[in-house]
Amino acid sequence: MSQEQVIKATRNLLLNPKTETYQHLDAGSRELVKKTIGFFENKGKERLLEDDHDRVWYADFLEFSKEEKLFATFLTPAQYGTGNDRWDTSRNCAINEVLGFYGLSYWYTWQVTILGLGPIWMSTNEEIKIKTAKLLKDGEIFAFGLSEKEHGADIYASDMDLTPQEDGSYTASGSKYYIGNANEAALVSTFGKFSDSGEYVFFAVNSQHENYELVKNVINSQNYVAEYTLNEYPITKKDILAEGRDAWDMALNTVNVGKFNLGWASIGISTHAYYEALNHAANRRLFDHYVTDFIHVQQLFVDAYARLAAMKLFALRAIDYVRSAGPDDRRYLLFTPMVKMKVTTQGEDVINALWDVIAAKGFEKDMYFEMAARDIRALPKLEGTVHVNMALIIKFMANYFFKPGKYEETGRRIAAENDDFLFNQGATKGLGKTRFHDYQKIYNSVNLPNVNIFKKQIRLLKIFLVAGKPNKEQIKDFDFLLNLGELFTLVVYGQLILENAKLLGIDDCVIDQIFDVMIRDFSKYALQLYTKGSATFIQQKICNRMVKRPVVDKSRFNAVWETYVYSMNGQYEMNS
Fold first, then answer.
1. Residue 183 phi, psi (nearest 5)
2. Contacts for 217-221 with beta carbons within 8 Å, 24 or more apart?
3. Count of other CB atoms within 10 angstroms of residue 527
4. What's CA 287's distance to the chain center, in Å?
5. pLDDT of residue 383
6. Residue 431 above 90 pLDDT?
7. pLDDT digits (tens, 9 = 90+) for 507-522
8. β-pairing, 187-194 with 225-235?
9. Is 404 helix (H, G, I), strand (E, B) or coil?
10. How far, CA to CA in Å, does 472 sit from each of 90, 475, 478, 488, 534?
């Protein structure tokens, strides 16, 4: 690629809704994504924020979705739909990003519809699948009844009971809590247990049924996140989605699909906030200077840009592994919780840096930023906390570092294809057997100053795992493991970023700036591990060596600032 092509590819990495062409999508999908952007731009920023402040149910967006068959087109697997209907993770993430860009509430109704559909598309109940496809065509939304007030996401302890009746039917009794869309969902996929055997079961209920009691909206938002109760709700065999181990696997596999969307919402929110913050700072004069003339402000913007570019590069690359997954390739089980956990927490860091620049402006009610700063906090806390997802991620660490598998090269997966495997993922056990391709291959192919320093940190982490292997007490200390897991996730994060940078032709100066940030993050977590009271002498020595200083390169910093960061000034502003 020429330098001009490299600059263009790098500048196009972050979404600008008014110039994005979506050339990687087929014509029909491209038109529908652009129509979705048009809906929000026509609505305008003032009305968008008014609806948020007044907690207005987004009936206008749902009507748009119904008219354009947005949910039906994107969320109906090909075998149950018509025309351009399919479940295609690549184009779904385009909608994820757009909806996040304009407001978390709009993304949320899409997200919980995805979760509600998961058990249905995973089931063997053909009658309900055909019914669901028709409901989607009619513009209906869906919900996922998993969590409970007393038990949270502890699905082992479900109090939702399905009680057998003499005629072979059942009645469902119990409550669910924190269930999005449960006020209007055509079907609510509900998790519970058989009262007699204690076996798990998934079944579908209608939110408008007389035995379905909508208790309240548990949050103060445009969204309706319900507590609902089933009062001897009648259930027949045709309403049951799965039983026993299949129902258990269905719950976890649905979350595997849904949690991936969280990182994309964070990318959308952070990108919109970035434009707004830069537009403000670049045009505001203080002490006879524009705010963006101050070096500390440039540093905050460059760090925020590096984090945001890394978020997008990682999440885009993770799509390729989700779409290439199969029974013998389960690498996605590491990458999906990382999109949920790592990308969403990085989104918080982006907003924090931008907020340090615009300060009190970030509280003003006519700023998108005010909404973004609130909503960005939600994403790390949905579909399992950061801690829950880190516990999952740590299970893959030994095989990732010490027992790599062999796989064919995974290219970009942007073809207009149905992602069949997502609804046939199989058993959720045996995660410790999952193998990954050798991370060293991509790292060793890159010779950039900060990537080279980061490689030294990786080597020291591997030495830590061998020479300073955590003892039994440390393994029980989740705070210790959390910091160790943060170090591990940075290695995986960097791997996919480098893979995608090569595939997309991203400028080396941006990649090296990303690793400038990652070296500092790695050093921070190493220092936190060093200060743990239980850290042994050898662990302390290795952690000390992990603390590294990035290569300072003023010309690289200035190139990133001038070519990619400051050049975003005035490039996007939402219609008023």
1. -80, -30
2. 217/183, 218/177, 218/178, 220/55, 221/55, 221/105
3. 14
4. 41
5. 63
6. no
7. 999 999 999 999 999 9
8. unpaired
9. coil
10. 42, 5, 12, 19, 11
Dist. CA 441–CA 450, nearest whole Å: 17
25 pLDDT tier (thresholds 50, 70, 90) = very high
Instruction: Find out whether 239 and 206 touch, Cβ atoms under 8 Å.
Output: no
Residue 206 carries which side chain, given as an amino acid letter? N
Residues comprising the chain, all counted: 576
CA dihedral 104, 105, 106, 112 (to 10 degrees): 100
Inter-residue contact 111 to 257 (CB < 8 Å): no
Does 151 score more than 90 pLDDT? Answer: no
Query: In the prediction, which pLDDT does 155 show?
Result: 73
CA 449 to chain centre: 30
In degrees to the nearest 10, what's the CA dihedral of 452, 456, 458, 463?
160
513 to each of 424, 518, 557, how far by Cα in Å? 40, 9, 7
The string over 32-48, giving b where at least 16 C-beta atoms fall within 10 Å of a residue's C-beta and e elsewhere, is bbbebbebbeebebeeb
Per-residue pLDDT, 387: 67
Beta strands in 94-156 (DSSP E): 142-145
Alpha carbon distance 325, 180 (integer Å): 29
Cα within 13 Å of Cα(92), Cβ side: 30
Residue 427 is predicted with a pLDDT of 83
Using the 8-state DSSP alphabet, how is residue 142 labeled?
A: E
Name the residue with tokens 């009262």.
195
Spatial neighbors of 253 by CB under 8 A, at least 6 apart, are 118, 122, 422, 425, 428
DSSP 563: I
| CA 215 – CA 229 distance, rounded (Å) | 7
Type of residue numbered 378:
A
Q: How far is CA 200 from CA 94, 258, 260, in A?
A: 35, 21, 25
Residue 548: its pLDDT value, please? 98
Specify the pTM: 0.96
Amino acid at 232: E
Which single residue is written with the structure tokens 């100066």? 509
